[in-house]
Design a protein that fits this description.
Length: about 100
Amino acid sequence: MVPEGSAQPLGHLGGVLLAAAWGLWADRMWARPLVVGCGAVIVLVHLVPGAMTGGLASLLSWIVGVALAWAYLYDSRGVVAYYAWLEEVEASGSG
């Protein structure tokens, strides 16, 4: 359990996820790894005894969520092609 009066272990993660959402909306290259990375951090924190109160159901739902985010952001043909195009545009300096 988190001691009374201390910050929750993931208290600032909401701001990071908000930045990731804006990054996806604004077509920023850093947004995809940030989304998956935040989810991975949440999964890892679930593995620390007493750090999270959601139990196994919460852990499993985050694992599924991270896997789905990864599949969409990195394995979906259209999304991968779009981000490859964005990378080309950024590299050419015309974006």
